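Bug report

Summary: structure tokens for CRP-like cAMP-binding protein differ between web form and batch submission.
Environment: batch mode, default settings.
Steps: 1) Submit the sequence below via batch. 2) Compare with the web form result.

Sequence submitted:
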Amino acid sequence: MSAETSLDAAFAGNRLLATLSEEERALLGTDIEVVRLGVGDTVLETGSVTKQSLFPFDGLMVSLRRELSGGRSVEVAAIGREGAVGGIISCGAAPAFTQAVVQLPGSAALIPMPALEKAKLESGHIRNLFCRYSDALLAQVMQSVACNAFHPIEARAARWLLHAQDRAASDRLELTQESLAGLLGVQRTTVNAVARVLQEQGLIAYRRGAIQVIDRPGLLRVSCDCYQAIENHFHAVLGPDGRGTAS
């Protein structure tokens, strides 16, 4: 795949970039790079200064994790082709509050922060787009807090798998049970038990470090209403054109 073709794939595959016109795309400059990232690659370290924004596509999903004392960490948000990582909410250089680690492999477009900030100043749509996305991302974080506090682990696991399937655009998720346990902030034995129940119900299949979604409607029934709440808010705030559907 040529550089031009892969760049076209990035603008078509990322839901934020896909809303840009040719003129708005040109405002982002020519220093956009398309990269392929693997599971475990670190995109941002806590406290590091953001130098470029990353726009996932092609199945890439990045986990935003907050590290706690004692060496533990928990996922606070997950970002895939619907969004971007780094420098979207803040204006200009700012330290990262979370660690960003690749959870599902795929590709991303890297846009230098100076080019992104310049484009925000010159385009009302780009400026408004990222403001709206920051609202959608904050909503995901707030819904996750409520979900983690009150909903059972089976519902939380089902919700996470649904979001992951959306972003990967595939039924097969390259994810170990150990990784899922870390993301949900529980012991591996707990996730093993949950995965076994979901598998016995015919909702998923687990084999060789990957989880296969077999019955998505079934997962939706097991999941709490947090999944749909997040999806509904994203659609209301951004929608297909980045302008939202809320009146």
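Above is the batch result. After comparison, the two runs are identical; trailing whitespace caused the diff. The longest helix spans residues 124-150. Residues 63 and 78 are 5 Å apart (CA to CA).
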